[in-house]
Amino acid sequence: QALEEAQKAIQQLFGKIKDIKDKAEKSEQMVKEITRDIKQLDHAKRHLTTSITTLNHLHMLAGGVDSLEAMTRRRQYGEVANLLQGVVNVLEHFNKYMGIPQIRQLSERVKAAQNELGQQILADFEEAFPSQGTKRPGGPSNVLRDACLVANVLDPRIKQEIIKKFIKQHLSEYLVLFQENQDVAWLDKIDRRYAWIKRQLVDYEEKYGRMFPQEWCMTERIAVEFCHVTRTELAKIMRTRAKEIEVKLLLFAIQRTTNFEGLLAKRFSGCTLADGTVKKPEVPPPSTNPFLEDESGTETDEIVIEKSDTDKPKKPKVPDNPFHGIVSKCFEPHLYVYIESQDKNLGELIDRFVADFKAQGPPKPNVDEGGAVLPSCADLFVYYKKCMVQCSQLSTGEPMIALTTIFQKYLREYAWKILSGNLPKTTSSSGGLTITSLLKEKEGSEVAKFTLEELCLICSILSTAEYCLATTQQLEEKLKEKVDASLVERINLTGEMDTFSIVISNSIQLLVQDLDVACDPALTAMSKMQWQNVEHVGDQSPYVTSVILHIKQNVPIIRDNLASTRKYFTQFCIKFANSFIPKFINHLFKCKPISMVGAEQLLLDTHSLKMVLLDLPSIGSQVVRKAPASYTKIVVKGMTRAEMILKVVMAPHEPPVVFVDNYIKLLADCSTDTFQKILDMKGLKRSEQSSMLDLFRQRLPAPPSGAENAGSLSLSAPTPEQESSRIRKLEKLIKKRL
Known about the structure:
The protein has 24 helices and no strands. By secondary structure, it is mainly alpha-helical. The protein folds into 5 domains: 25-132 and 147-154, no CATH class; 155-272 and 322-326; 350-424 and 450-500, no CATH class; 529-634, no CATH class; 651-700, no CATH class.
């Protein structure tokens, strides 16, 4: 029953919807009938309005064409300029009616009038400014000024023709005055070219400034055309007289030309140049590095070191000047003269540095300020900067790559002649030290060491090499910024940076070697002492005092002189520790035989040395600074091994099993050679040693054929093979019990 009621309700709903739809269709039909008449009236009104407007335009067009033709004949250019624009605008409304003969005829009359106007205006300009003859008639007329306004409306080619003819006529005198065979045409009188155009531009502004419309930028166009002509003429004359070009003359001409280009940039916007894009300058961060200073204005008549670049307002930076290179581009093929000159100048500069160093000697040691950087390196890089900026203003192409090659050559020369060449020689200062001569040293005897001045010189050369390394990196970055993007990959100063790194490494090695060799006699004395005869433990032995004395003599000087390069002082400490500690342990093995008391004395000495070495970076300093963790780790590891060796020596060798296990536990060294040395130190007989060695091989946890490193690792952590063998033994044991 409920389902039937629902079906009835749905049927009723469908019926109501159908009724509503029928009524809506009837209403729509009724509205259409009511508005039909209104629509017709609306269309009629629109068509009528369009017809009236078109007729008005037609009347204006017909009248305008007649007036245009009459005014053209009477040369009434002032009225023509306004009328022509109006006629052209009205004619655009008739583009869709060109099929009508009368309209097409009017359009052709307008075009004919435009052509006639164009030819007439060109003829008027030719008459006023004849291309033949050098003298121009009197000032401009109002007729020509109005003619320019008409030319704005005509075909752009008319305007271009007027501009071209006027500029050509204006510069005709220049081509005659500065012909290739004239004396004033050569580079030494290049100023006269720029003085001539300045006068011409002033003359133009006074006489013809108001004749041409402002938006034509005629003054700039004359200047730009002058630049193009000058570039062509200069290129031609330089090709002919290439052998006469000297570097001073070339730089003089380039400097005067870039000054002129800078003047153009201040006076004009560069809107008439096709590629007048202006980039924003990049502001580099302030720094003491010469390659990070402000480079604005670095022009000088001769190559000199400038003290301030920012105080003098000079030529704008290259990226800001749309006229940059418009004339000076012609000098680029001849820049090899400049590059050769820089090669020669830098060679002389390096020779002067060498001579100055020989004459003045090494820099005086100044403990307060740390190791002095040689002043010559700052001079070199300031000169480099000057050359780089100057060359980048001349060209950012191949000449910059050639200059980079020159830079590389003299960076290497500086590194070898000034830095490496002046490092003290170890053979001369130490009298040709050899292992045999060291072994012959008697207790208390001294070996030749570097003097205070020599130590300071090494530190000074190290600091200079570090400065050169950092500055060379900046130089490479700057060169890459300056050079064309396509040539960036060809600039690479890594080899030169490596050269300075080698100088730094050699300097540190010299300092380490000096201190290391100074300590050798003390260690030799230690190994020659009769340790089995020591009866009681006292204060530290004389050899320890000798080592400490040498450390206290050298390290404070080195630290103070390397105050500005802390990381290299840390490297020195680490290298010394890595050299001295193994040498100390080797000498320790030579102390044989050793009694119990002797071993205790040696242990006390070793501990004293360990404390001194831990304190090495800040020894003799009023400011106590914590030693670097990397250094401390090396000292602790090495000297702890020395202490462990002595502790093993002090341990009784009976029972042998306990002694061997104790050795393995303390030293974690599976080498039979080391164990043999320990037995020698204890003074055991050969028969006892052989049984001990057999026992040692049996007690080794790792197989004897394994590498030494693997053996030492096995003491600290069992390998997977050892674990599996232990598990197998356990399984067998459990089975037996079951």
